[in-house]
Every structure is written in C-alpha cells, then in structure tokens.
C-alpha cells in the first residue's frame, strides 16, 4: 500500500493540463488561470506623478523664507504647465509633475496667502514624487502563465489598460455516486437508505476550486451499469469523481468496472486515515478517482489528493499549497499506525503571533462518517506513529483548508 506522500505525487501527475483557452473580460477573470505570460506594455506610473497634495517646486528656488507665487493649480487628469523659475504650482495627488519641478512640498509643510506660498520645511530633491516606471517597467513580466488570477492581479492588469485576458478553459468534472444504500435527495428514502451527502458536497468543493460540474449521476451496485456509466462520463468530462465502491468488499465494484471498461489502475488504497480505500485510475485518457463513501473521508481525500490533480488540470503553476505547523494537545488521543489527518478548529495565538506556532484544538469527533462539525474545521493536522507518547503542544504539519480548497 502506498504512503500518503507517494499517492499524492501519483494523483498530482495523473493528467495533463487542459489545452483549450478562451478570452474573458478582465472583470470576470478572478478565479481563472492565466493561459499565457503577460508582459507590461507601458510603464507604471506612466509619468512622474505627485504622491501628495501640495506644491510642485524647484528646490533651488526655495531659499530661506522665500514666497513663491502660485502659477497654476493642477489636479489629477489636468495637463500642467512648465514650471517657471521662482514659482510654485499647486498640485494634487496623482497629477503629473510639471516640467522643471524636482520636488513636491506637502501641503502641511507649506503656508499659502494672497502673495504666494512659503515652505516651513526645506524641500529635498525628489521628495513626494512617484517616478515613471517605479512600479512596473515596460517589457517586464507582469504575470506568468499558470497564475490563479486574484483581485490584486486585476488591479495590476487594469493599470496596463488591459480589457480582456487569455485564460485556460474551465475544467469540467463528472460526479458519480454509487450504492444501493444511497437515495438521491429528491427521491423517497427507505429506512435502510441514507441521503446523498457526497454528491452535493462534492459539487460545492468542485465549485470552490474554480471548476464546473458537467454532469451528476447516481447508480446502484451493478457492475455492468457502472461499466457503461464510467465510459460515458469519461467521454464528457476532464475528471470523473466516484464515491462509494472503492474498498474490497463484494459490493465494492468500481475497480472491477473500471478494468472491464478498458481503464487502468494507478493507485488503489493509501496508508492514511480517513480515506484508506481511495483509488485513482485512468479511462479513455481521463483520470477517474474513486473516493470513499463515508462523507468525512471523501472530504479529506478530495482536499489532500484530488485538489493537486485538479490544479494541474487547470494549468496552475502551484499544485501544492504550503503546509505550515501548529501545536496541538494529544493527551488521551489514540495515535494510529499510519498517517492520520485530524480535523481541527481555528488556529489561535495565545501569546505573540509572531513568536510561536499557532495552537489548535483537535475536534472530538473524527469518524469517517461524521459530518455535523465538518464545516467548522479550519484544516487538518497530520498525526502519525512518530507522535505516539507525545501529549502536550505537539508540533504537527497543518493543512489549511482555506488554501487547499481554493
């Protein structure tokens, strides 16, 4: 059985990025993956501009107590005159620096009356001036291909006058829930059945990753039906997610159905809890992931194993979000003989946040089928045999769900 780290690498490399691209309006590009390098086409700022409300002056004109007549008032978006010797120009933040000026005196450091303006503090050459190109130079790489576009990136792109950007097309997912015991949420439920939890949960998780659900099916425990449904879904989606039927019982039919459909298994079973039965294969060139039927196990394996694969399909450059460290109390906890991923609450910093690792509390309920507190988890801590016997404030790897599910 593969270790968690071995399996994570296999999942992450089980597919190639989608090749198709499209162009979208800049305002709708947040959450999309950039399809090509973007190079700055202009300097930012495009000219020397004032960083303050004040007065544009020539430093050599400012000699002890001099009163300089105000030649012009310049607002952002107004064309300034060339500064005449022995004069000042009233200027506002963002306005272009007049030719001949080499400093801006902040308005709080100046006094103006009917004769002109005097300075209460000697100006220095270059003060309060934003130089042309000090943020971005024309020709510089603005954003590399594979960047997940966020609001801050939108600001940088808009500053270049871009209206549309090239992005990778949205990755399309097919979800297949299986099992006689599962009743679709719009169907009558017998006493021996359970509601479909995994279907809606996975749709939400897929959307949180910036992908789309192309289709959603449910099938009973029938290998022939599974066989045909898997072949159909693999022909219509970039990734097929299956829940249930991943283990090795008589009713766990996904692996057999995948093989009979002409697919191949890449990994079956991972030495982790929850999620040990998780399986990945390939059918018609598309990755097929079979997640455990228990909802908390499906949630965990999606977050830690499927999201790197999904990021690769999307064309992102970063497949694995950073894993930090936190401290947790393990007193009374039974440490398993494999890598366990325990749900924890919000990270707290009882002392100085910059001087120590955060502190978390391990959720009391860690069952693979428990869902009532799933939404309150901030992340997972990774606990293994090496932590046996440790009790208080143990330093553990921490997988932040805000990062791993985004």
Automatic annotation (TrEMBL):
Q: Which InterPro entries match?
A: MoaB/Mog-like_dom_sf, MoaB/Mog_dom, MoCF_biosynth_CS, MoeA-like, MoeA_C_domain_IV_sf, MoeA_linker/N, MoeA_linker/N_sf
Q: Which residues form the MoaB/Mog domain?
A: 174-312
UniProt keyword Magnesium, yes or no: yes
Q: Which cofactor does it need?
A: Mg(2+)
Q: List where this protein forms a coiled coil.
A: none
Could you say which EC number(s) this protein's record lists?
Answer: 2.10.1.1
Q: What does the record give as the reaction this protein catalyses?
A: adenylyl-molybdopterin + molybdate = Mo-molybdopterin + AMP + H(+)
CDD domains the UniProt entry points to: MoeA
- Read off the PANTHER family from this record: GEPHYRIN (PTHR10192:SF5), MOLYBDOPTERIN BIOSYNTHESIS PROTEIN (PTHR10192)
What does the similarity note say?
Belongs to the MoeA family.
Q: Which NCBIfam families match?
A: molyb_syn
**Which purpose does this protein serve, as stated in its record?**
Catalyzes the insertion of molybdate into adenylated molybdopterin with the concomitant release of AMP.
Q: What is this protein called?
A: Molybdopterin molybdenumtransferase
Q: Which organism is it from?
A: Cupriavidus numazuensis
Source species taxonomy = Bacteria, Pseudomonadati, Pseudomonadota, Betaproteobacteria, Burkholderiales
């Amino acid at each position: 059985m593969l270790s968690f780290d071995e399996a994570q690498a296999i999942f992450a490399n089980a597919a190639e990025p989608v090749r198709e691209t499209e162009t979208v309006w800049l305002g709708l590009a947040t959450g999309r993956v950039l399809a090509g390098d973007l190079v700055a086409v202009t300097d930012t700022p495009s000219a020397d501009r004032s960083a303050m409300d004040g007065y544009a002056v020539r430093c050599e004109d400012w000699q002890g107590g001099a009163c300089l007549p105000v030649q012009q008032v310049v607002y952002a978006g107004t064309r300034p005159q060339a500064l005449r010797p022995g004069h000042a120009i009233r200027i506002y933040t963002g306005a272009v620096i007049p030719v001949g000026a080499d400093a801006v005196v902040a308005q709080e450091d100046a006094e103006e009356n009917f004769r002109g303006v005097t300075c209460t503090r000697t100006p220095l050459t270059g003060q309060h001036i934003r130089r042309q190109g000090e943020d971005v130079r024309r020709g510089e790489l603005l954003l590399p291909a594979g960047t997940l576009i966020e609001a801050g990136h939108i600001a940088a792109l808009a500053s270049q006058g871009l209206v549309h950007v090239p992005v990778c097309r949205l990755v399309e997912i097919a979800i297949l829930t299986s099992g006689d015991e599962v009743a679709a949420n719009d169907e009558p439920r017998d006493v021996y059945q359970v509601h479909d939890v995994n279907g809606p949960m996975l749709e939400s998780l897929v959307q949180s990753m910036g992908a789309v659900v192309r289709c959603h099916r449910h099938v009973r425990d029938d290998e022939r039906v599974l066989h045909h449904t898997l072949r159909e879904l693999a022909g219509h989606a970039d990734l097929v997610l299956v829940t249930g039927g991943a283990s090795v019982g008589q009713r766990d039919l996904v692996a057999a159905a995948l093989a009979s459909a002409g697919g191949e298994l890449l990994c079956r079973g991972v030495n982790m809890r929850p999620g040990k039965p998780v399986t990945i294969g390939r059918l018609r060139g598309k990755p097929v992931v079979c997640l455990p039927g228990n909802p908390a196990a499906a949630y965990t394996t999606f977050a830690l194993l499927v999201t790197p694969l999904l990021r690769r399909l999307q064309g992102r450059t970063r497949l694995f979000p950073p894993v930090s460290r936190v401290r947790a109390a393990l007193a009374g906890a039974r440490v398993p003989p494999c890598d366990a991923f325990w749900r924890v609450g919000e990270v707290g910093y009882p002392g100085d946040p910059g001087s120590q690792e955060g502190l978390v509390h391990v959720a009391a309920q860690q069952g693979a089928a428990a869902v009532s507190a799933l939404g309150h988890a901030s992340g997972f801590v990774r606990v293994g045999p090496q932590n046996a016997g440790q009790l208080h404030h143990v330093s553990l790897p921490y997988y932040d769900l805000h990062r791993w599910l985004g």
